[in-house]
Design brief:
This protein has helices at 2-15, 63-66, 70-83, 85-91, 105-118, 120-125, 165-176, 190-198, 215-222, 232-247, 278-291, 307-314, 341-350, 356-363, 374-381, 395-408, 416-422, 425-430, 435-438, 450-460; strands spanning 18-29, 32-41, 44-46, 49-53, 95-98, 101-102, 137-140, 143-144, 154-160, 181-186, 207-212, 249-254, 297-300. By secondary structure, it is α/β, with parallel strands linked by helices.
Length: 461
């Protein structure tokens, strides 16, 4: 199968030599800012769209506010640069031709890096052999991009909400610090809307992003063209910067933790969470300051913390137990599927801090008794060499969580997966680990301003 995919990759590159980014347009229609793009390769045309309802708190309210606004023009173009990657992966055209604007040599190198590492999982899963120099060539024509410019921002904080425990912790900690918080949701669904409801934030004070994928791409996927993971958080990054400009809010507080830095495949740079990593965050911040705006402050509020520390903090907010969701498999129906590595991971992370009966109410069952989850369990705790291709924490902190659960269950009958774990070699490596010291650590590799850092340190202590 892997050899077949590699052959298909080479065949598609010959058949579709160029993917062209033809144009982008943006305008206000019926109270919404519309972004429309046009990409094509051979006879296949893609026309993805993004719409953003204009709310009363936006600093830009009408067409007059966007006409001639070079900063918005710049950002709409850049959103297209990351959006096109979802369409490029279907045919992996060896050349991407950019028509709206010309990128300089440094920008081309930056985009190739984001594309290559952001597609690391896609290449790995599809068995595609390539390197950062040869996988794609980016050519440009058109006008020079508008230069980086100053803009007036207040000290408000935009918090992207995914519906999981991490964004809940960011939201609640920032609220407790009396920051002016504005949630942002891309393609609102049950868990995300219920999260802001529990937080006491009305929908009128929410930034809503509606992203529409072109049906041509879905049709190609159905025909067996190449498909796989793309760096979604990079797209969210550029969209959130546009929203900072639209609302005049300076800070964008992501909820990516230090655990996101760990590679998914051991001894490689292949990381499912690349666009959530510190490396990406650093590159993205520098690019924004150089080519878009020096004033926008994009950072991850939870970067100093591990997933297990975030889980402990989340346990302090029981009002969110019935509404939060982190299951990708169940996202469309707004459920915990109970049969995927993401469900199992969050169950393990939260179990040391939330009563078993509450965990069963959240997930519908005790996942640690499910024998069918053993392969995922082995991947999560390091018995297997490759972690699941999901947004999950490090194997080390999974082991710490499991050790804490074992301590709590010393006089109880162990469920199947814990019995399996207790008999493993890796369990013996961690049974003398100082779990409490582990839960107090603070990663200094972050971009938090003092007022945000103080808040996280206070919560941790």
């Amino acid at each position: 199968m892997i050899q077949f995919r590699q052959q298909k990759y080479l065949h598609l590159r010959k058949e579709y030599p160029v993917l062209t980014y033809h144009s982008m347009e943006y305008f206000i229609d019926h109270g919404e800012l519309k972004l429309k793009y046009n990409f094509s390769t051979n006879d296949i045309t893609y026309s993805p769209e993004i719409s953003i309802p204009i709310k009363s708190f936006f600093s830009i309210q009408d067409a007059e506010g966007i006409e001639g606004n070079q900063l918005i023009e710049n950002l709409v173009f850049h959103i297209g640069m990351i959006e096109l990657l979802s369409y490029w992966k279907a045919t992996c055209s060896p050349t991407i031709h950019i028509k709206p604007y010309v990128l300089n040599k440094e920008q081309v190198a930056w985009w190739k890096k984001i594309y290559f590492h952001g597609l690391g999982e896609f290449f790995y899963v599809n068995g595609i052999n390539n390197n950062i120099d040869d996988f794609v060539n980016i050519t440009c024509q058109g006008n020079t991009l508008p230069i980086c410019q100053n803009y007036i921002f207040d000290d408000g904080v935009i918090v992207p909400i995914g519906g999981g425990k991490d964004s809940v912790v960011s939201l609640e900690l920032l609220k407790s610090g009396n920051f002016k918080v504005t949630p942002l949701i891309l393609n609102p669904r049950g868990a995300t809307l219920q999260t802001i409801g529990v937080a006491g934030i009305a929908k009128e004070h929410l930034i809503e992003i509606n992203r529409k994928i072109d049906h041509s791409l879905i049709a190609l996927n159905d025909k067996g063209y190449l498909n796989g993971h793309t760096p979604f958080s990079a797209l969210l990054g550029f969209i959130s910067v546009l929203c900072a400009v639209l609302t005049g809010k300076q800070h964008i507080a992501l909820s990516n933790e230090s655990s996101a830095n760990e590679s998914t495949v051991i001894d490689t740079e292949i990381n499912h969470q690349y666009s959530k990593s510190y490396a990406f965050e650093s590159d993205f911040r520098q690019y924004i300051k150089t080519y878009i705006s020096e004033e926008v402050n994009y950072f991850s509020f939870l970067r100093p913390l591990l997933e297990i520390q975030i889980a402990k903090l989340f346990s302090n907010y029981p009002d969110y137990y019935p509404v939060f969701k982190s299951c990708n498999a169940g996202s469309k129906t707004d459920i915990w599927c109970g049969n995927c590595p993401k469900c199992l991971f969050t169950f393990i992370m939260l179990s040391p801090f939330i009563l078993t009966e509450d965990m069963i109410r959240i997930y519908g069952s005790n996942l640690l008794i499910n024998e069918n989850l053993q392969s995922y369990f082995d991947e999560l705790c390091g018995i297997s060499e490759i972690k699941p291709f999901e947004c999950v924490g490090t194997t080390e902190e999974v082991n710490i969580a499991l050790q804490l659960i074992l301590i709590q269950m010393q006089k109880k009958e162990l469920p199947f997966l814990l019995k399996h774990y207790q008999s493993s070699l890796i369990s013996q490596q961690f049974n003398h680990f100082d779990q409490h010291a582990y839960l107090k650590q603070f990663n200094i590799e972050h971009f938090l301003l003092p007022q945000f850092e103080t808040l996280v340190i206070s919560a941790l202590s």
